[in-house]
Amino acid sequence: MSFPQPPSRLPVQLPSRMIKLGVVALGAVAIIAVLNPFYQIASGYCGILTNFGSVQPSALEPGLHIAIPVYQKIISVSTQPQTITSHEQAATHDLQDVRTSVSVTFHIAQADAPGFYRDFRTLDMLARRIIEPTVSNDVKAITANYNAEELITKRDLVDGQIKDLIIRSLQPYHLTIHSVNTANFAFSTAYAQAIEAKQVAQQQALQAQYTLQQTQISAQAQVVQAKAQADAAIATAQGQAQALLVTSQAQAKANSLVSQSLTPALLQQKALDRWSGTMPTYLSAGAPLPFIGTMDAVQK
């Protein structure tokens, strides 16, 4: 018994034209993948377009961009704030060594990015070639105008002058300066000890002067108080003397008036008014009668 054989299937052959198109497409994809003409610029950056290495004057915005392979290239440049710190050593006007650190915070504006890339390529190159030498020269130029002690007592003034000079010096280099911060000035150990000893001596002198002033003020207060007490005593004595004088004058005037008013008749009348009528028991010859007069006056 025989079974029927299934019909045979002939292999499907694609047209050669389609095969060629597929090969071309795959080749194009491979070339694109290798050459990679797509560039993505992240936020906070801008793109620098170069034609065979020549920097184009306009920067590209963040986003997706296409560059012609081999002929063009796009480089990302940060437009975010950057801080470069420089450690400096300088000499003061009185030849004292001083150390400080200066931090410059800046960013590269998009319009200035092509010029920055053309001249410096990287931030490290900008720091080494421009910022650090500029800061060093400007710090030395300013500190040379002040004595070491003045760098402490006039700190705000010195900081402001250093900042202004650094900003002016960096203006030609495609930078937007945000801030310039100067750390505390540090001196040699021997000089720092000398400054501390001087400050201690000044504080002691000020304390002694304050104590002397307080003593003088206290002494002056005692003098003023004693003078006030003396003036008060003098015023009291003068018042008492004046009052006694007035009283004495009034008493004398009263006595004078009384003396003028005491006539013999008035005196006799006052004596009679006060006499009880009792005669003395014994009278000597020629003695006056009480409150009346002599015996001769009575006899008359």
Structure description:
The protein is α+β, with helices and mostly antiparallel strands and 300 residues long. Among the domains are: 30-78; 82-187, Band 7 domain (Tetrahydropterin Synthase, Chain A, 2-Layer Sandwich); 192-237. It is 53% helix and 20% strand. It contains eight helices and nine strands. The strands form three sheets. Strands 6, 7, 8 and 9 form a four-stranded antiparallel sheet that branches. The protein has a three-stranded antiparallel sheet with strand order 3-2-5, covered by helices on one side. Strands 1-4 form a two-stranded antiparallel sheet. A hairpin with a 5-residue loop joins strand 6 and strand 7 (97-107). Helix 3 (123-143) crosses helix 5 (155-170). The longest helix has 73 residues, at 189-261. Mean pLDDT is 80; it is low at 294-300.
Lay out the secondary structure:
Blueprint: H1 16-35, E1 38-41, E2 45-51, E3 54-60, E4 63-66, E5 72-78, E6 82-91, E7 97-107, H2 113-119, H3 123-143, H4 148-153, H5 155-170, E8 176-182, E9 186-187, H6 189-261, H7 264-274, H8 295-299
Antiparallel strand pairs: 1-4, 2-3, 2-5, 6-7, 7-8, 7-9
Helix pairs in contact: 3-5
